[in-house]
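Request: When convenient, would you put together a sequence paired with its structure tokens?
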Amino acid sequence: MHLRPRSVSYALGFLLLALMLLAGCGGDERRDPTDPEPVGPVVAAISVAPKGTFCSIGAFCTVHLGETLEMEAIIIDTAGVDHRGLPVTWSVDDESIATISTEGVLTPHQLGLVQVSATYADSTGHSFIQVLPTRAVSIEVTVDQPTIPVGGTATVTAVVRGKDGQILTDNDVLFFTTNDSLVSVTVTDGTHATVSGLADGLVIIVAGVNMAVQDYVALRVGTPGAAAPGFRLATVAVGGTHACGADPAGIGWCWGHNRWGQLGNGTRGMPWETFFPTQVVDVTGLTRFALGESHSCALDGAGKAYCWGSGPTGELGNGLHIGGSATPLPVSGDFVFTDITAGTVHTCGLVAGGQAYCWGHGGDGELGGGNWLTMHTPMPVTGGHAFQSISAGLFSTCALDLDGKAWCWGSDEYGQVGDGGRHGTGVAVNEPTAVSTTLRFTQLRLHGAHACALTAQGEAWCWGRNEYGQLGNGSVGNQPTPVRVQSPVAFTQIGTGAFYSCGLDAGGKAWCWGNNEFGTLGDGTLEDRHTPVPVSGDYTFTTLVVGPFTSCGLRPNGETYCWGSNYFGAVGNGSAGRDVDMSVEPMPVRQP
């Protein structure tokens, strides 16, 4: 019997081991048959959110009853790769509130909060969805009586409807007023409120389900014209969020926003508003005011110009590169001005003979010096024109020469230069450019990005921006040349705001047209108008001044009434902000 040598056995063993290792390195992978089959990427996280929305992942997204919401699972592996679209198992924690299909479509059944989960392999992601009432598409508000006495009450009712016109009862309606000093509003149930009269005046009661679905109704407390007499002024002007005027003695008074010291009373900052007139310090004998967005200017009886408020772009004209001043500062130079006007961040004035000077922001050519410079001192307007009046707007300026011909310069983004785009559509111009018309005008006013002018016969013509009907021609759409205002009356005065315009007829009645979001038209509504409508109330004015969002008028005895936006107190009736957000008809400026 022969035995195999031990060395040979060892060699055969090593050979067999080598063959086994080589086989393991080949394409025929060997594994334990009890191991689970690979099922996809190794999951690091799963996020769940409504598909195609901007709702933040993990936040309480929403769905309305009667609608569905498609959910999406975003699967991220350990390498950070997005594997959305892989099949997941959907579930909810409360099927009485909502159910979800295998495709991830969520169907709500009742109001509540439901957790939606998506599971892939051993990982699960979650999201919370809030089920809201059936979506409201319209609301109609009525009041049981249009007029109540002080101390009386009225009931306001809101009817909410869905997309099919059905009346909805599961949407809670929010009721509020634009003037808490005249009425109080108490919600009695989801669709009714009781309004109690506190003082004489006209108010708007607003009811809404959300910002997009609102309606309103007007309610008068007491009788028209029963309010206290207004503060008596000889001149008045309105700025971005403040107003100023001079009394018969030439003392200056301002009210409204004062963050930058634009009221000229020596203070600025907190509190940012003064809701009734406060005296301008350091200067007297004032005869004329011009207000910008956040700065104020005035002329005294000798034609000396003073400015105060915000001044980082030189609009104060004092030669100093300062942020602003809470007290009046003299404009640099020995100028004797006959007229002064303020745009958003620039100022212009006329001297005897009609030469125009401008200062402040000039990046759009609004200073008219033939350049694009920002100036901290007055710079002459180029062209050698003699002007009878001048008016500054957003980033543009217009003026009338001695023959009544209209000239404009600066930004022409909306056609406000009025030359029909001869220099190029929307291209700014840095020197006076003739408005494309053969008409001659007696007055011209520019504010925002549109201008209006009057002929000797009282016809009003406007040009520039017109998305709200502020040109008064019965339509919308910007106009690069003058179009006639479709007015039933002739005007003796004209004014332009940011998105609206107003005029004064021969009898002293005020008319307005354009955007009415803040009650700027003063007609007792919030409806935009494409042609002139009369301002509410039996008021006669001798002077009408139109600001960006607030207007003021002087009555024959000098009493001052204002209407429109009052968020910062520009109406001057002693209240502002949440108490009196706006006034939809003229209100008297409160005595200091």
The two ends are 133 Å apart (CA to CA). The first strand starts at residue 43 and ends at 50.
